[in-house]
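yo, Helix-loop-helix DNA-binding domain is done. seq:
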Amino acid sequence: MIWPPRSSSGGELGRGVGMQPVATGEAVHETRTAGETRAVRSHSEAERRRRQRINGHLATLRSLLPAATRLDKAALLGEVVRQVRELRVRVEEVAVMVPGEGDEVGVEEEEDGGGGGGGGGGGGRGRVVRAWVCCADRPGLMGELSRAVRSVRARAVRAEMVTVGGRTRSLLELEVSEAAERGEGRSALQAALWAVLLTNRTAPAESYSKRARTSTRFSKT
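structure:
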């Protein structure tokens, strides 16, 4: 019987074929590990940049708010929300005060007027009314309004004036004596304010300042 010759190359080939899957598996594992490392590194870098942006925004908020350097993030954001709400209320108040194009005089009763102030019976204290005048701006307007208020025996508790583009709007909170009847007192006040509005109505507006200005005055005259 003749046996086929043994081939040394065949044995080597067999051993080579047997080792090939192991080498391929190691390469795949190494490639996968490298890919995961790059993904983790990329995610870490993105997270680092995100934190930098957040910290930058928080630093900006701290610089805008007074005494906010010692607040933590939650307290800082709460203070920001409070400030934004307060600013929104102020914007609404200012919007009401912006003067319009037409001349206007109005008087209305305060809802909680009369006896408001110093607690107790409120005897002798008048009721509070709100009056407003919208007209062209001119020098001495506030003094004219003050004299008109005194002419009807009212007392100015608070006065605000906003002037934009040569137009002005004055808002007055007045304490009116209870001795006068409500209807007559209100009509007398409105007539006095109209008299102020009509004074020098034909004066050229160019002689007055066109710059926007806001003033708040408190008087007890």
